[in-house]
């Protein structure tokens, strides 16, 4: 991730956070439209879940310069996700739906460079989460 991309993410985060509720609703709506089979995995209230996701985005955004510090936490998050029934192939669907939700909520303000910068952050987190999942012992 380039310094310019980090700056774009930091600068745009307040306006994303201000739209966190509509973004969460758009995101889950889109995700369940793409793959309705994922809906039953989510047991908690979607609004509460959306808040947790936004808290995680806050953590990512504020730690862009020392992303390594987040690795243990993200690996553990990925391992909990395995317990929710999440598989590695679900990650691109979540990334795609989240970036779509940002773009719809921000409309024309979500230009290509911003989309690429945010996709990079979410993909970085997803990669570490999947690494955590891959480290789990598997029964043959
Ligand atoms: C960058 C990727 C992702 C991030 C940052 C993320 C973040 C989170 C966070 C912070 C939680 C709260 C619970 C906890 O801390 O254990 C959570 C729960 C959950 N996530 Fe994710 N997640 C990601 C990817 C995914 C993917 C790919 C799926 C698959 C559909 C998914 C499905 C779930 C489910 C089912 C729960 C539990 C919800 C419930 O108990 O109702 N997440 N996620």
Helix-strand blueprint:
Elements: H1 3-18, H2 20-34, H3 46-62, H4 71-84, H5 91-106, H6 112-134
Protoporphyrin IX containing FE (HEM) is lined by residues 38, 41-44, 49, 52-53, 56, 77, 80-81, 84, 86, 90-91, 94, 122, 125-126, 129.
Structural write-up:
This protein is mostly helical. It has one domain: Globin-like (Orthogonal Bundle). It contains 6 helices and no strands. It has helices spanning 3-18, 20-34, 46-62, 71-84, 91-106, 112-134. Helix 1 packs antiparallel against helix 3 (46-62) and helix 2 crosses helix 3 (46-62). The model has no long low-confidence stretch (mean pLDDT 94). Protoporphyrin IX containing FE is lined by residues 38, 41-44, 49, 52-53, 56, 77, 80-81, 84, 86, 90-91, 94, 122, 125-126, 129. Protoporphyrin IX containing FE binds next to helix 3, helix 4, helix 5 and helix 6.
Q: What is the strand content? A: under 5%
Which architecture would the CATH scheme give at its second level? Answer: Orthogonal Bundle
Based on DSSP secondary structure assignment, what is the total number of beta strands? 0
Please identify the top-level CATH class. Answer: Mainly Alpha
Distinct ligand kinds: protoporphyrin IX containing FE
Taken in chain order, the helices and strands follow as HHHHHH
- The radius of gyration computed from the alpha-carbon positions, rounded to a whole number of angstroms, is 15 Å
Overall structural domain count: 1
CATH topology value: Globin-like
- Helical residue percent band: over 70%
Assign the CATH superfamily. Answer: Globins
Number of helices: 6
